[in-house]
Amino acid sequence: xxxxxxxxxxxxxxxxxxxxxxxxxxxxxxxxxxxxxxxxxxxxxxxxxxxxxxxxxxxxxxxxxxxxxxxxxxxxxxxxxxxxxxxxxxxxxxxxxxxxxxxxxxxxxxxxxxxxxxxxxxxxxxxxxxxxxxxxxxxxxxxxxxxxxxxxxxxxxxxxxxx
Length: 163
Known about the structure:
This protein is α+β, with helices and mostly antiparallel strands. It has one domain (about 5-160): Sandwich (Jelly Rolls). It is built from four helices and eight strands; from the N terminus they run ααββββββββαα. The chain has helices spanning about 5-15, 25-30, 110-120, 120-145, and strands at about 35-40, 45, 55-60, 60-65, 70-75, 80-85, 95-100, 105-110. Strands 1-8-3-6 form a four-stranded antiparallel beta sheet. Helix 2 runs antiparallel to helix 3 (about 110-120) and helix 3 packs across helix 4 (about 120-145).
């Protein structure tokens, strides 16, 4: 039976954000990740708070919530989903609340640990950033093909890939 470390390494290798990284950097990411559990209903992070972590969901379901006059469920994520990758690069306030809908187990990586890895493997940052940029591009491309004709008003907020 593989160790937790070996299992985590294999899981991280499967994440598109880490595609193309050297094995040494991947081993360090794996070593510095921690497994965390959340109970059903527990808030993982709150809208508007600065949360310096990225989360890779191993088990369970989480709900993304936009808080305001009325609480709106934006979407749900589950096993295999990676949330919060941009928070590894800069200190931004969360735009949504993330709440566990069932028992959730995830791998967490903090910005501080991530930055230490980048100091040892400087080229890893550009590879990861390129992977994130690709993900944004393909998301926007998919959004346009799915909604452009149906909801033209939605197009006024797009153009992320033009930055």
